[in-house]
Structure formats: C-alpha cells, structure tokens
Amino acid sequence: MSMLGNTEQCAGTGEEPPDTGAAAGGEERHRLTAVQGLAALSLDAMASVAYGPESVVLVLAAAGAHGLGFTLPVTLAIAVLLAVLVASYRQVIAAFPDGGGSYAVARRHLGRRASLVTAASLVLDYVLNVAVSVTAGVAALTSAVPSLYPHRLWLCLAVLVLVTAVNLRGIVESAKAFLVPTAVFVGSILALIVVGLFRSAPVSTEAAAGHASVLAGGATSVGALLLLKAFAAGCSALTGVEAVANAVPTFRAPATRRAQRTEVALGALLGLMLIGLSVLIGRFHLQPVEGVTVLAQLADASLGHTWAFYVVQSATVVLLALAANTSFGGLPVLMSLLARDNYLPHVFALKADRQVHRHGVLALGAVSALLLVFSGGDVNTLVPLFAIGVFVGFTLCQVGMVRHWRQSRAPGRRGKAFLSGFGALLTGVATLVVTATKFTEGAWLIALALPLLVLAFETVHRAYARIGERLELGRVPEPPRRCHSLVVVPVSSLSRLTSKALTAAVSLGDEAVAVTVVHADAEGRRSAESLRRDWELWNPGVALVELPAPSRSLGRPVVDYVRELTARRPDHRITVLIPEVEPARLWQRLLQNQRGAVLAHAVRRDTDAVICRLRFRIGPARSAEELADMRR
User: Fold this and answer.
1) What is the b/e burial string over 403-425, where b = at least 16 CB atoms within 10 angstroms of the residue's CB?
2) Cα 615 from Cα 613, distance rounded (Å)
3) Which has the closest alpha carbon to 133: 99, 165, 164, 92?
4) What does the pLDDT read at residue 487?
5) Does residue 630 have a pLDDT over 70?
6) What is the band of 595 on the pLDDT scale with cuts at 50, 70, 90?
7) Beta bridge mates, 573
8) Helix (H) or strand (E) holding 616
9) Whether 387 contacts 125, CB under 8 Å
10) d(CA 86, CA 146)
11) Which strands, in side-by-side order, build the sheet including 543-549?
C-alpha cells in the first residue's frame, strides 16, 4: 500500500519523480560538496566547543581545584565516544544512503515503535537546537553590548528569520553563506590552541578580572557520580554529529562517499578542538567565574586582550547564532522520510526548486519561533531541555547497528558490532545521567513530549491507513467507464465571464445548465427578473434555473439543487463550474466579493460533485492605439 500510496501522492500534488540524465545533472549544483557539508551541517557540533568544555568545568568545579584536574580525562572519554559515534555513523551512511540516520536504522532493525521514538527524539532535539543556538548567540551578543539586552527576543526572531530565509533558497545557498563564518571560527579556535600550547602561563587575565569564582572550596575527592555527571554534561558537545547521516541525499554524487568524508572531517575537527581546549584549561589552571565564559578566558590567556581576543568572541557569537542551520539541513530530510512512511502529512515529502523541502523548513522555523517566544529569548530556560533527545537517538541507532552487523556477512562484522555496542553502552549511560540530573530543571517536558509526538505519528499513520482502505490502494481498480456528464454553472448576471463559463461547460459535459440564486426581498426579485429577460434575449442555448433562497444564503440553494440532481440522476457525473475573475494585480483581489470561494466551500463540504473553478484573467488595460491596431 505504501508504494502505491506514494505514487498517488505524487500524482495528486504535482511532485515530480526523481530526475535522471541531464535533469539530474542540473540538480547536482543544488547539492552539497564535502566542504559545503561542513558549513551546512556541522555548525551545531562546531559551536558546541563554546559550551561543551565549560559544561564539564562547571560540574567538576563542585569538587574544587582537585575536581578541575579531571577536565582532560573526562574530555578524552568524550572524545572516545565521539570517535565511536563518527565511526558508527560512517557505517550508517553507507548502509542507509537515502538518509534518515538513526530513524532509518531503527526502522529496519528495531521495529516501528523504536523508529518512531528515535524520530520523535531527533525532531525534539533539532527544534531545541534551533532555539538554543539562536538564544545562545544573542546572549553572547547582549553580554558584549548590554544595551541590547531588553531587545533580545526580537534579536532572536530576527536571526531565526534570516536563517530560515537563507535555507528556503536551498541548502547549498546556506552552505555558501555560512562557509566564511565557519572557517573564521574554526581557524580562530585552532590558532588559540596552537598559540596557547607555546605559552607556559596566561598572557592576560583581564577578561576574568573582577568576576567572582564559582569554584567550590575544601573538596579533596572526586566521586564516580560526579565524573559521570561531568561526562554527561560534556556530551552536549556531541549534538549535531548525526546530522550528516540524516541528510545524505543532499550531497552531490557520490553522495555516500562525500557524506562519509564530511562526517570524518567533522569528528576530527571537533575532537581536536575539544581536547586542545581542555589541555589549555589545565595548563592555565583556569577556574569558572560568573559572567565570563571559559572560552573567553582561554582566548584572553592565549592571545591576550587584543584584537585577536575580539575576533574569537565575534566568531563565537556569529557561529552560535548560525548553528541553527544544522537543524535546517537535517530535520526537513527526516520529515520527508516520515511523510513517505505515512507518519507525517505528505506535503513534507515534496521538494521545491533547489532541492528544498520548503514545508519542513517553514514548519521548523514556525515551531522554533514559538519556543523563542515561550522562553522570552532566555537561553537558560531552554538549555535543560537540550541534548536529551539526541542521546536517545544515539543509543537506539547504536543498538540497531549491532543488529545490522549480526545479520550481515561482511568481513569484520564482529568488530563493527562490538564498536556499535560499546557506543550504545556509553550513550545509554549518558542518556540516563543527563535525564536524571536535568529532570527537575525541565527535562520532564521532554519525557512528556516524546510519547505525545510518537502518538501524533501513530494518529497520522492510522488516518492514512483509513484513506488507503477507502481508496483501495494496492488493489487492481475496476476499469474506467463513461457516464453522462452534467455541468452546473452558477451565474448572477450576463457578461463576458458568463459566456466563457458556458463555453467551457458545454465543452466539458454532455449537458449544461445555468443556475441563479433568487433572494426573497424586492431587490432580489428585481435582479432575477432582469437576468431572466436578458437571458431570453441572449438565448445561449443553455437553460437558466432559478433557485429560491428564503435567506441571504448563497451556497445552500446551490447545494440543495446539486443534491436533488444527484438523487434524480444517480448515473450522472455532476460538475459545478464556478467562474471567477482573476485581476491583473495582487492588491485588486481585495476588491472581489469572494462569491466563488463561498460556493466552492459549500459544494465541497456537502456534496460529492466535482468542482471546477474557471479563472478569467484580466490583463492590463490597453491603449486606444492598441485597440485600433487589433481591429485592423
């Protein structure tokens, strides 16, 4: 049923089948290269270096200076998990080249329910990523320019509109637009690390001067629970790693190889930056302070309080704000797969020009805007909800890949299955710890939203199943047969529009009839008498039927007449042809009385008649000279 259902969907909506040959070659320019993939799909992961190491430090600070000594070991554990995830997602890309990532893995190897849980977790994470990234970027900006703080919500919405608008032009356009900010950010962080490694002490501490330390005193030991909590907090830096696997179809051919290169490059750069920053935290003995980020302290200590410091800060602000682009690259593709599996409205599977899933982009922008309004543009309201969903997806994906390799006969499958199992263990632990530690801070909302979203998917799927049963999808239909066709044309006066409508009616059907609604008041009777007299003089060869209307209703008399015709002539196909004027300019549509829309809605709601809306286009007025030339 699904395959035929998708065929019906394409036929009914105008979606084109996949292009081949020259057409496919023309579409390649709207797909990503490996470098563009980094700019379009890795901003979330790249920007996480601005808050990932800080999350680890803030947790370990509860154990005092002794606790901060574990920053590098915890970061190395996160880097190991990152390497496992990158290796696993490379395998996912090869095994599922149609995209979908964790959802596609769970759907094939873990069953429908697990796949829906995975999809729901990824949807929540992608939406939250947009809101968190935008608010974090604006928060960094308002920290530098405090006068903008009262306007942070409007700034967040402005950034969101910018990112949404760029993505509506295509993922390649967004990659081109964000390539320079990504390069500047990565280059500045790598420069910070390299320069810092050659320094034995901070060159400047001006950024942290006057700010109170949040380091706890008196602690002499670090427990396993604290280390697990620090590990789980630092794992927020891994969000976005799955985006490349979700969006494989957006890459140029060979898409699989380009996506794998992008995944490896993302993992290498992210791991290098996380470890390098952690090394510098230990080298400079940095402590978390109120009001100043760890990254800002590192830039100050390594580069000094010079223009280079402000380059790092500016690049961080821009990339944090634009990190939302990762969601715009991954979520619309995931939504298109859910739509093709009948778990979301089919409109999300359609592509516009430039290979854009426009409805998915707009839906993501709209929901993210609601989240921003709900939070008031405050990043602290959203952060406790962040990263839980993606770890659920990570874990289910790794478990699914274990099954994949157990069923495979490929060489080295045991080692690959062990790798995926190890990753599932690590991400499963991180999921439990993150959820437990953030539950009272707002994570309960995710625990509530996840099953509700799965329930919504199931509801949509059942609705499509009922539609499929009524349409008898998957069965051979009865052969078409010709039946007598009667076309009903509602009219209110004589005009060129009336003539065009009757011409179309007698061309479409075996029989045509014009109907006019007669209201009971004096004005209505006078209009009906005038139309009747003019109709007899015109004599178009089509009967005019007057439909009395006790009230001022326009649609009800036509609906009653169509129902009467259907009952009287059950073997006839009834078509209601509604003539309408289409003005030359958009603003002139405000001058229309909308009678056609009212009639169409009433007939569609209460009858099974075919509705045909005839558009009569009115072009710009012609000059007297043009009319004279036409007569000649």
Assistant:
1) bbbeeeeeeeeeebbebbbbbbe
2) 6
3) 164
4) 92
5) no
6) confident
7) 485
8) strand 610-617
9) yes
10) 39
11) 543-549, 511-519, 484-490, 572-582, 610-617
The answer for 144, left when phi > 0, alpha when psi is -120 to 50, beta otherwise, is: alpha
Contact 555, 530 (CB under 8 A): no
Q: How far is CA 530 from CA 45, 489, 494, 517, in A?
A: 73, 18, 10, 13
Q: What is the pLDDT of residue 14?
A: 37
Q: At what angle do helices 152-168 and 358-375 cross, to 10 degrees?
A: 170
DSSP-assigned beta bridge partners for residue 617: 582
Range ranked top by mean pLDDT from 118-122, 152-156, 323-327, 462-466: 462-466
Please give the pLDDT value at position 20: 40
Locate tokens 């004096």: which residue? 522
What pLDDT score does 380 carry? 57
CB-based contacts of 328: which residues, under 8 Å, 6+ apart? 130, 163, 164, 167, 171, 174, 361, 364
304: which 2 tokens? 């000094």
For 36, the token pair is: 């563009």
Largest Cα separation within the chain, whole Å, is 105
Distance, CA of 336 to CA of 357 (rounded, Å): 8
* Nearest by Cα to 243 from 295, 181, 174: 174
3-state secondary structure of 238: helix
Mean pLDDT for all residues in the chain: 79
E runs forming strands in 125-187: none
Distance between CA atoms of residues 333 and 246, nearest Å: 7
Tell me how far apart the alpha carbons of residues 606 and 244 are, in angstroms, rounded to a whole number: 48
Could you tell me which residues come within 8 angstroms of residue 203 by beta carbon, excluding any fewer than 6 positions away?
300, 301, 302, 303, 304
Residue 540, preceding peptide bond in cis (omega within 30° of 0): no
Residue 440 to residue 485: CA distance in whole angstroms: 66
Structural element, H or E, at residue 149:
none
- Band (381; pLDDT cuts 50, 70, 90): low
**What are the tens digits of pLDDT across the range 331-350?**
888 888 888 888 988 888 87
CA distance 195 to 181: 21
| pLDDT tens readout for residues 142-193 | 766 767 778 888 888 888 888 888 877 766 666 777 788 888 888 888 998 9
Dist CA 167 CA 177 (whole Å): 10
CB 205 within 8 A of CB 292: no
Are 400 and 393 in contact by the 8 Å Cβ rule? The answer is no
User: 377 — alpha (psi -120 to 50), left (phi > 0) or beta?
Assistant: left
**How far apart, in whole angstroms, are the C-alpha atoms of residue 306 and residue 192?**
13
Please give the structure tokens belonging to residue 627: 């009319």
* Alpha-helix runs per DSSP H in 341-473: 358-375, 379-382, 388-407, 413-438, 444-471
Sign of CA pseudo-dihedral 535, 540, 543, 549:
negative
Q: 489: pLDDT confidence band, cut at 50, 70 and 90?
A: very high
Q: What is the pTM of this model?
A: 0.69
> 3-class SS at 387?
coil
User: By mean pLDDT, which of 360-364, 442-446, 583-587 is the weakest?
Assistant: 583-587
What's the count of helices (H) and strands (E) in the chain, helices before strands? 27, 5
Strand partners for 546 = 516
Distance CA 379, CA 327 (A): 17
Residues 6+ apart with CB under 8 A from 294: 53, 54, 57, 277, 281, 286, 288
